[in-house]
Structures are given as C-alpha cells and as structure tokens.
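Observation: inputs received (chain + shikimate-3-phosphate).
Thought: call the complex predictor directly.
Action: predict_structure
Action Input:
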Amino acid sequence: MSVSARPLKARPCAGLRGTAAMPGDKSISHRALILGALALGETRISGLLEAGDVLNTALAARAFGAQVTQDGPGAWRVNGTGVGGWAEPSDVLDFGNSGTGSRLMMGAMATAPVTAVFTGDASLRSRPMGRVLEPLTLFGAEYEARAGGLMPVTLKGAARPICVDHLVSVASAQVKSAMLLAALGAPGRSRISQTSLTRDHTERMLAAFGAEISVEPLPEGGEAVFLTGEADLKATPVAVPRDPSSAAFAIVAGLIVPGSEVSLPGVLLNPRRSGLIETLIEMGADISISNARESGGEKVGDLMVRASSLKGVEVPPERAPSMIDEYPILAVAAAFAEGRTLMRGLDELRVKESDRLAVIVAGLRAGGVTVGEMQDGMIVEGRGGEVPGGGHVATHLDHRIAMAFLVMGLGSRHLMSVDDTSMIATSFPEFEDLMRHLGAQFENA
Ligand code: S3P
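Observation:
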C-alpha cells in the first residue's frame, strides 16, 4: 500500500450501458514524447495519455533538453534536439511506477554523451533493469545499479557509440525498443532481433519520423529489425489512438455484468495488442468491431460489447506478448466463464508492477474462485457466471490489479474491495468516472 492509499469497494450492479471514450494509448504516448524529443522540429501530439507514467516521461524529456508544452487536453508540442543532442539532466530522474518510461529513456540516452540517474517508486525499484542495461553496454554505455540490477541506476551514455547486432532474449517490447532507440545514435546499421513478436509501436513510429528502418522475419520465428544510426528524425504529428489495455476493463465489465451493452469508440486494434479480444471472442464474448480504419499508422476501430455467457479456453502461450498486460482482467473473465481456463507462458508477469501471477491468484481466491498457480501460468476454475466475491484484495502498487478486481466486484454476488486505487492514476486516471458513467457502483471503503 502507498502512504496515501485510497481503498475502494465495487458493488454488484445491474447492466452497464453507454459509450466510454478511453484515454490515449500508454505505449504510444511514451514513444511520441521520446521520438519528439529526439527529432528536429516541432512534433504535435493529440490524444496523449495524461497519466502519471506518461507525465514522468514528459518531465524526463524536458530534463534531457527538449521543450515540451501542453496546449490543451491531450494536445502537446515537443521541440526536440535532434539525435545525439540531448543535454545532461541536472537532477535525478524519477519515473514513478513506469517500467516503459524508464527503460525506453535509458535506451534513448545510451548513445548520447550524458550521464543520468534513474529512480522510481517502490514497485519500479524492485523491477529488473539489467535486461535493458546489460545490452546497452554493447553500444558503449556504462552503468551502476543496486545489486540485482535494481534502481537507482546511473547510466553513462557512450561518447563514441558503436552499432550492434543483438538478439533480445526476453519477450519484452521495452527491451527491444530501448535497443532501437539507442541504435538511433550509433553510426552504422544495427540489427535488433527477437524470437517473439512483441508490440511494434516503436518501429512504426520510427518509420513515420523518417528513420531508415526495415523488418525481416527470422527463419526460427520472430523477426530482425534493421535500423541505420545517426538518424535524422523529422518531427511529425502523432494522433494517439485509445488504449486497448484500458478498454480491457470496460470490455470485461460489459461481458460479465448481465444486461450490459457498452460501446468503445476509436480503440487501437494493432494485432500485437489484440490478444485479449481474440481470446474473449473464443470464449464466446459478444464483441463486434465496426468502422475499422487506419489512424496515424495504426489500426483502430469501434467496439460494441454485450453481456455474454463465457466458456473456459486454453490460451495459447505464444499469444502472451499480444495481451501481456491483460492477464489480470482475463483471469477475472475466466472466473465468470463456464469451465476451466488455462493460461501459460506467463513468466514475464512475475516482473511487472507486481508479481502479477501471485497477486492475481490471491485476488481470485479472495473472491471465492478456485485457481491453481504454476511457475509460468494459472488454471482458473470458472464459476459459470456465479462468482461469490466478498473478498479484499491487496494491490501491491499495481494499477491493473486494482482495476481488475474492482471489475470483478461489479459482477460478483458480494462486493469486492481493493486496498488502494491511487496507482490507477499511473495509467487510467478516468477509470472510476468512466465506469460510474456506465453504471458501475463504487464506494469508499
Ligand atoms: C510495454 C511493454 C510491455 C508492457 C508494458 C508496456 C511497452 O512490457 O507490459 O505495459 O510500451 O513497450 P514488457 O516489454 O516488459 O513486456
């Protein structure tokens, strides 16, 4: 629990109805600020997510010398320095709860001749940074971290960076992206490969900013990204689509609360982010997608979700990267389904904002659901719509755990409470208001 914890209860409620405009995508928002800060000229961003994690990235971009200005809600301007032009921050950079902001910024500064100190909240200071820092040394960067590669971290960017050929061994878009951002500042052509297909927003946005970038499939699966360094990035407008990882909570709420009908316009439908929708549809969810279109190099569409009887499924482990942030809420959906849901290939969940596997399992059990935990997954015994609820969940500074178990309370027989909702503001400050607008009932615990 944080010092100023805000506990909350969610009551079982009648049908959720209406339209909810989700906030901007978190991954794309971070990248828009960072590429804006690396580009020459003025990048105009619309629909930026104004949540704690992204605002910390904006502060860091300023600390590295970019001009970052807010013109109105979601409307931001970034005047960048050009690749290699970042200044040395005069103070420690505090990234709060954000793994993405901190790791991407480490990459972006690793090939500039500056030194910076990175820290964060108790959750971020317990997360592994060696996965990013070690490969960044290949470019010539140097670092010091606490034992186990933990923050606070001091990173010294390479004064004479060299390009690299590196295979990213973890299924992490953050590590891949950090390497690509570092490659921007290294002369020559770097190759960054990964055997799993993680989200590709960095690659798409780099292409839009004029980087020389190409992607080739690897014979053994996965792909290699080639990027030419000393890049001249040109400022370009970014329209941030609405975040599917935030929409996930409203989608599952709409499915499990009987009588619901919820519409969610303009949600990002990048296939590498759509694993939850694919899985829910396999479970029998009534989700229709209309008006599928392209916006700013990304696919978006309007979703209509109606309450549905779900059935348990086996989720293919190789789908995990495309729904890695959605397992807390998928586990809640699985609790309401008829039959068993098996989820595996989830080792990465152990190093998220909390040990999400353990925390999900504890939360489901608190709500009266039988669940088995494995090192890399879980088996949820679905209750066929009749979830007892009535439990209290410890959120461990994890925004998605708080939101998932509040949603569980909306569909259970008895209310669910969570010990702290303050972290929800790191990714989705409007969560409570938007859900109340649809008919959700929350009360202070
Ligand atoms: C993100 C990548 C994922 C995800 C995170 C956002 C990104 O982390 O969990 O919320 O924007 O690249 P990993 O790369 O560590 O899997």
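Thought: report the result.
Final Answer: The two ends are 14 Å apart (CA to CA). The longest strand covers residues 286-295.
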